[in-house]
């Protein structure tokens, strides 16, 4: 289990981005978030996974990598993997790209939660990545935010749209964490 750490800025968190196959949206989100959150004091570990093992061991889709490179993200390396139950105990936030991913994660979380109660382990919060709104505001309903559409069967523009969304959501999530840390310090 990866331990989060308390820092002068607050408690660091571990974030896992999740889509279906872990070759388009979630690696794009991971790459962008690594770039946006580089050296951010509240971030400890960043990774991505898929709800399915269809592409396990493969590199991200070439269009994902081309899009990342076109925005200056050139050192990102990833091999697709399927999410594990251990991820629910290692990460603080699991970010689903769409409502199907969210549903799958929520179902798995329930079974992990049942066994974690016995040991007292903390289980990750599962959210739709698009639930994080501008100004550090969290959508009042889990899964009520914006969905990141799967660009796999589309053209390059779909990947550009995903890049724009995950960049926006990354900034919104960091704002949310900062706002929450300030609230915790005030209390």
From TrEMBL:
Lineage: Eukaryota, Fungi, Dikarya, Ascomycota, Pezizomycotina
Domain (Phosphotyrosine protein phosphatase I): residue spans on this chain: 13-176
Superkingdom of this protein's organism: Eukaryota
A Pfam family the protein falls into: LMWPc
UniProt GO molecular function: acid phosphatase activity; non-membrane spanning protein tyrosine phosphatase activity
Active site: 19, 25, 150
Main location group: cytoplasm
Family that this chain belongs to: Belongs to the low molecular weight phosphotyrosine protein phosphatase family.
Cell membrane recorded as keyword: no
Full protein name: Putative low molecular weight phosphotyrosine protein phosphatase
Subcellular location: Cytoplasm
GO cellular component: cytoplasm
Gene3D superfamilies tied to this protein: 3.40.50.2300
SUPFAM superfamilies on file: Phosphotyrosine protein phosphatases I (SSF52788)
Keywords: Cytoplasm, Hydrolase, Protein phosphatase
């Amino acid at each position: 289990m990866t331990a989060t750490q308390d820092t002068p800025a607050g408690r660091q968190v571990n974030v896992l981005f999740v889509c279906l196959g872990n070759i388009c949206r979630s690696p794009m989100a991971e790459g962008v978030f690594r770039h946006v959150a580089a050296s951010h004091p509240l971030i400890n570990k960043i990774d991505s996974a898929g709800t399915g093992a269809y592409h396990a061991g493969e590199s991200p889709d070439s269009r994902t990598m081309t899009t990342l490179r076109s925005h200056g993200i050139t050192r990102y390396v990833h091999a697709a993997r399927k999410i594990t139950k251990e991820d629910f105990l290692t990460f603080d936030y699991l970010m689903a790209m769409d409502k199907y991913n969210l549903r799958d994660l929520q179902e798995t979380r329930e079974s992990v939660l049942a066994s974690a109660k016995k040991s007292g382990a903390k289980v990750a919060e599962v959210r739709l990545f698009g639930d994080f709104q501008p100004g550090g505001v969290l959508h009042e309903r889990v899964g009520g935010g914006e969905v990141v559409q799967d660009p796999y069967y589309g053209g390059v523009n779909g990947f550009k749209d995903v890049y724009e969304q995950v960049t926006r959501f990354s900034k919104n999530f960091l704002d949310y964490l900062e706002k929450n840390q300030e609230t915790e310090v005030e209390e």
